[in-house]
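Q: Could you write out the predicted structure for this multi-component system? I'm mainly interested in how the pieces pack against one another.
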Amino acid sequence: MLAIVAPGEHEGWVHVPARVCVVGVGGLGCPASLALARAGVGHLTLVDPDRVDVSNLHRQLWHHPQDVGRLKVESAGQKLRAQFPSLGLALRPGRVDASNVLALFEDHDLVIDATDGVQVKFLLSDAAVLARRPLIYGGVLRFEGLAMRVQPDGPCLRCLFETPPVDVPTCAQAGVLGSMAALVGALQATLALRPEQEKGLAWLHVLDGWTLAARTVRVRRRKDCAACGEGANPVLRDEAEAAACPTPTSTSPVRSAP
Amino acid sequence: MALREEQIQRYGRQILLREVGGKGQEQLLHFPVRVEGRSAAVDVAVSVLAASGTPLVCVAPPADGFLAGAVLEAFNPDARAGEPARASLAPAGFGGELLPVAVLVGGQGVAFAGGTTCRDCLDATARSLEGPSNPAEHVLLGSLAALILQRLALGFTPEGQGLSAFRLQAPALAAATPTRCPAHTAGN
Amino acid sequence: MSDAHLDITREICPMTYVRVKLALEGLPDGAVLEVRLKGQEPLKNVPRSAREDGHEVLSLDAQADGTSRLILRARHGGR
């Protein structure tokens, strides 16, 4: 029934990265940063341009009513610092874009995609391919959760989705249950600790919170992939999100057949 | 039982879900959970549930410092239970009294008991889910426990009756076969 | 004629559809809700979300004052 990745009995394979960058400190980034700090990651960089909104509180564990209006990175950083005094923390209030994304990858062992826009997810995936650093993709849309580890030489997000979809609710119109976001964010953290063992392969984890059914889908690198395919040379570009809203939501791309 | 304005603002993103709506959010707000014992995973479940409007009766103090300094009411005023609890949440080894509907979180998985489950079967299943896990996995298991309880409050849970279990299992967290107590073992 | 009126011209996403959804939930099956809205986001998202929730979109008209008038019929045909 439920099938989501966790290191479990392969304890020996668990590899705790020293420096991790969490892009987005919302529904996914809060549980992911908690789980990574608990796992003993030495340094976390939190990146998010937004301030805490009251509609975030039901699912973003670091943000409490008194934090409304504060920068999310500061609100989360304060709680992480209090609970994990030896954790190294860097707080970057700002947006990830084509001009700064490569430096983020180069400065960390791994990046967590806890963002809420479709275009930024593809930007992060392209940058992961260029920088040859692992990225943990994650998304929640209604009762569906997705997560995948994008590894150097492995399939990337464009192998999975080809082109960014245009007709998904990319704004806060999409509902999300607090525990679904927590589950996917925590799953991303466990994937961060577990490098894929096989080159050119990855597992897409699909959770259905409505039925509690889940599955893992084997994803292969596509030879003609525009980002990671043979001879491909991705260009990092800033594309506007389809429907910009004051408080964007976590959203996942619509799947095309991998 | 209409939602107050600050509740509409806070839970708007849950209300937007077709399967939740205003009615479902009210169900979440009126499904108190009694926290019988604590562990790191239970603490995660408590914080997830408190944030999204599940009232909690905490019999035991936090285990992990995750909620240290954050009184539940400060986290969310709706997290204070004013009604009798409808379900129990506890670590796997908890031996005390449980409500008929109970979620037990072990180091290796989560066990859920519906209204008619034999307590000995639940305990046997929960014991089989004890064991060490990576601290990151506690967040995963706690979130799963919270999801099971939220689904239960919303009334769309196929595991509403009987006993079910989920186990960490590389590369998956899979449905596990519940362990039966001697009285309910096949052949007895 | 509509059975209820709702003005969401001052709301921003995600509260635009939250207000509409709660209003529709409070109406009996078949009742008509008139919504006054403003801006690109609700214009695109509110009718779509209402349809996804199983309600009927009867009409959407631009008004002289720059707002729009959306007429919805509440449908509670199960989940």
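A: Regarding packing and overall arrangement: The mean pLDDT of chain B is 86.
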